[in-house]
């Protein structure tokens, strides 16, 4: 929920900056939100990587011989979830900042391409024809999420660049906000 909160703040900060005629401040708001969210999610991913057995132990007796296969799969899935964390935070915040730019149609199309075209298809291919099962499914979904996160971040970068106007074109009141 932390990235969602940061995404909502980014939406508001970007929109207010644009409405005030200060596109550079809007760009900065998006960049700061993205950096803050990715940093937080990287810390959460580090927890998953550092303590997968402790996390699995919360849900199942990892020392029981009957759970050996389950624990093996769970440890792989937690490693994939660690990457998933970072990209999920990234895409949520980039989408929030893009809403501040009033850009919602293209992010929707990018999400459809990434989640369905790359994630779902890739997950299905890895899980079933390639035979990797749940690890393949999660890997495909993580790749789809990463694709969406990268596409939305690039979209945010180009939206911010195209919104910047020369200093002489800014209203006087907007200059004071910088």
Q: How would you describe what is shown here?
A:
It is elongated, with a radius of gyration of 20 Å. The model has no long low-confidence stretch (mean pLDDT 93). It has one domain (2-165). It has seven helices and no strands. It starts with a helix and ends with a helix. Helix content is 83%, strand content 0%. Helix 1 (2-19) runs antiparallel to helix 2 (23-50) and helix 1 packs parallel to helix 4. The chain has 178 residues and is mostly helical.
Alpha plus pi helix count: 7
Oligomer: single chain
Tell me what portion of residues adopts beta-strand conformation: under 5%
Largest sheet: none
Q: Which structural class fits the helix and strand makeup?
A: mainly alpha
Which runs of at least 5 residues are low in confidence (pLDDT < 50)?
none
Number of domains: 1
Q: What does the overall shape look like?
A: elongated
Q: Radius of gyration, Cα only, in angstroms?
A: 20 Å
Q: How widely separated are the two ends?
A: 30 Å
Fraction in helix: over 70%
**H/E order of the elements?**
HHHHHHH
Q: Mean pLDDT, rounded to whole units?
A: 93
Number of strands: 0
Summarize the structure.
The chain is mostly helical and 178 residues long. Helix content is 83%, strand content 0%.
SSE diagram, text form:
Layout lengths: L1 H18 L3 H28 L1 H8 L8 H33 L4 H23 L5 H31 L8 H6 L1
Quickly list its features.
178 residues, mainly alpha, 7 helices, 0% strand, elongated
């Amino acid at each position: 929920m932390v990235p969602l909160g940061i995404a909502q703040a980014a939406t508001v900060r970007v929109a207010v900056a644009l409405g005030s005629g200060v596109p550079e401040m809007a760009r900065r708001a998006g960049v700061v939100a993205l950096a803050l969210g990715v940093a937080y999610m990287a810390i959460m991913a580090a927890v998953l990587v550092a303590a997968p057995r402790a996390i699995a132990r919360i849900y199942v007796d990892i020392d029981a011989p009957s759970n050996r296969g389950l624990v093996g799969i769970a440890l792989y899935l937690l490693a994939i979830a660690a990457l998933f964390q970072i990209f999920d935070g990234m895409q949520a915040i980039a989408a929030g900042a893009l809403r501040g730019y009033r850009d919602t149609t293209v992010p929707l199309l990018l999400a459809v391409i990434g989640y369905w075209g790359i994630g779902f298809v890739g997950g299905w291919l890895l899980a079933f024809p390639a035979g990797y099962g749940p690890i393949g499914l999660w890997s495909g979904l993580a790749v789809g999420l990463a694709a969406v996160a990268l596409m939305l971040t690039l979209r945010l970068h180009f939206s911010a660049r195209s919104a910047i106007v020369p200093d002489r074109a800014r209203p006087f009141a907007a200059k004071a906000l910088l």
